[in-house]
């Protein structure tokens, strides 16, 4: 049995959606971030060394971190869910590309935007940090939109993969939904399709505050 450490409105959404989609048995630990539980020495020692969410305790008791890695791991663990192209499928290259792009390029823009204090060098920096983060975020989303130029419903083609679920989570966090929709219509259609899936929708409902 896996155990997901999660909190509402956070990067545990995609891992939980994967657990729901795959039907793998799991339990959850809801981290009381408002009380600072994730910053405790015990949490950093036993769960996440940086005091972040999510984390996944594996069946053997070890704990893995990094939301995209958790998503990829779960998709591979349940091949019958067909959420990960097989290693010998050329789509696998782009599946991995978008998963890692989400984690390495989009996610950090959000952290800069929503936590300008983490990047503050001097008092009064926050607005400039947020402006730069939003510009970088919108540039980064433009690149994702190119995947949908041929009208395909999902990032790698006709089938929803774990990368779509991950990117759909990140699309939800955009601070300007009104501007995002017309700027990235392909991403917007894809994310709406992801959240219509009953299993993903269950995780989304739990993550709403
Ligand atoms: N690279 C990490 C980032 C995780 C992360 O930044 N999580 C945020 C929530 S979305 C968090 O735990 N923030 C708590 C804090 O900053 O105190 C991953 O993808 O798992």
UniProtKB/TrEMBL annotation:
Residues 1-82 form the GST N-terminal domain. Residues 88-209 form the GST C-terminal domain. InterPro entries: Glutathione-S-Trfase_C-like, Glutathione-S-Trfase_C_sf, Glutathione_S-Trfase, Glutathione_S-Trfase_N, GST_C, Thioredoxin-like_sf. It holds the Pfam family GST_N_2. PANTHER family: GLUTATHIONE S-TRANSFERASE FAMILY PROTEIN (PTHR44051:SF21), GLUTATHIONE S-TRANSFERASE-RELATED (PTHR44051). This is Glutathione S-transferase.
């Amino acid at each position: 049995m896996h155990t997901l450490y999660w909190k509402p409105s956070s990067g545990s959404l995609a891992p939980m959606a994967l657990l729901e989609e795959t039907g793998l048995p799991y339990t959850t630990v809801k981290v009381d971030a408002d009380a600072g539980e994730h910053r405790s020495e015990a949490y950093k020692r036993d769960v996440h060394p940086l005091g972040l969410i999510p984390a996944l305790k594996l069946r053997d008791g070890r704990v893995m971190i990094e939301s995209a890695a958790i998503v990829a791991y779960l998709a591979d663990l349940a091949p019958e869910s067909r959420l990960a192209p097989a290693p010998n499928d050329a789509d696998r290259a782009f599946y991995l590309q978008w998963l890692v792009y989400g984690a390495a390029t989009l996610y950090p823009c959000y952290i800069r935007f929503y936590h300008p204090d983490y990047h503050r060098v001097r008092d009064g920096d926050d607005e400039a940090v947020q402006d730069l983060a939003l510009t970088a975020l919108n540039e980064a989303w433009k690149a994702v939109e190119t995947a949908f130029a041929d009208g395909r419903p999902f990032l790698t083609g006709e089938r929803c993969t774990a990368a779509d679920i991950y990117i759909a989570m990140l699309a939800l966090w955009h601070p300007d939904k009104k501007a995002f929709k017309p700027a990235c219509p392909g991403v917007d259609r894809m994310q709406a399709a992801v959240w219509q899936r009953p299993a993903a929708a269950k995780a989304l409902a739990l993550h709403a505050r």
